[in-house]
Amino acid sequence: MKDRFDTDYKVGQDNTRKWGVDIHGPVFLIAAAFVIGFIILTLMNPVDAKKVFDSSKSWTIQNFDWFFMIAGNVFVLCCLSLIVLPAGKIRLGGQECKPEFTRLSWFAMLFAAGMGIGLMFWSVAEPVAYYTDWWGTPLNVAGKTPEAARAAMGATMFHWGLHPWAMYAVVALALGFFAFNKNLPLTIRSCFFPLLGEKTWGWAGHIIDVIAVVATIFGLATSMGFGAQQAASGLSFIFGMENTLGLQLIIIALVTIAAIVSVLRGLEGGVKVLSNINMTLALGLLVFTILAGSIMHFFSGLFTTTAAYAEYLLPLSNWIDRADEKFYKGWTVFYWAWWISWAPFVGMFIARISKGRTIREFMTAVLLVPTILTLFWMQAFGGNALLQIQNGVGVLAEKGLGEVSLALFQMLSNLPMTNVTSFIGIVLVLVFFVTSSDSGSLVVDSITAGGKMDAPVMQRVFWATLEGLIAACLLVGGGADALGAIQAIAVSVGLPFTVVMCVMLVSLFMGLRHEMQKIRT
What we know:
Low-confidence stretches: 1-5, 7-21
Number of domains: 1
Order of helices and strands: HHHHHHHHHHHHHHHHH
Number of helices: 17
Largest sheet: none
Number of strands: 0
Distance between the termini: 14 Å
Radius of gyration: 22 Å
Structural class: mainly alpha
Mean pLDDT: 86
């Protein structure tokens, strides 16, 4: 078995030299045609497009909710095991390889790429939604009760903690390991070499890469749609501008232009600089919110929310005979599909910046550190919002959760310097927006260029433009219920890539076992 693996890897290396061209014909053409066709059909008939979005989402959730849940749980368990298993000492790129970025820049880039816009959009809206029973409560806990507040924070952490980062980590580690340790192209198909052998470079590999590109494009477009809605709501809140579809489309256009400029500046001058700026602004807003709110409530809430996360982790991970179907399918299954649709993008980007890290260091950083940072973020913003509601302060207490994209600004309005903090919030959304688009176009370009990391810049410009167009189409096609359309497409594209990720995990462990055998001998 060992000899066969060695032979296969060498053959794979030979093939990549022939295969690694600037544009990989089948993958690039099929993915581009699919995306452009989607744009054209949606703009031609947005009403029918919305019906298709909704039908696809309903069918996927009704038939495959169990599959999303099982897959998510398996990913978490496997990632945690790699922290303690002997394979954790394997270093991406070889035992002598040195990291390219400092730990601080590394954390900033992976966190900004992984959850930026989502954290801004949902950090207030989600806990408030659960507490007030806006659309179902976790495990059917009665709304607006002390237990509802505990459940709201525990469920929010469940959706933003270990599970999503485990999904990212599986793809990131598989890509990094096969690219940097086995010298295969940095593209999704390479992760399947132990299973597919030479078929990796044929149509089986083409299909895998096309699925990854489509999932990435639509996953990014989902977040860009959220970002456009929130930025428009913030502008309306601060400057009194009418929050219209036209304003949201203008924001998408401007951010897409900014993303193209960032693309032209490259990884060091674009994503790295923007990520560091964003993390500085985010840290400043976080510290301000903690100090301007209740400091005692924040620190006591950290303990309470951590305990609630631990308490609700297993019950919310269950998929059998759930009584809270509205919450379970409307929130959790959507989130799992959304995270998975982001996994090829975030995974490849994390792999790209993680060369030189050991698997143990990698898993600790990618899985545990962001979960802890998310805990602080959610407690500061979501915890403050729940405290305001419980004390009868502000619009959220008076009217509940109305326009979801306004929730963050409504919470900030009850703290000092509202206009300043709200403006910083808008800037954060927009810069997260740009870094996501830039990083995403980098990843999609690498996949459609056969795994090359230095493909022509104009190819990334092409994909950055298409990402903006897709986001605009989702808003147009969704009509008044644009948020629902955005969620629907995320769920639909997440399903096929969940299958890809499950097989990828098997292939990864085969590769790691082979590497450990080499180290022992």
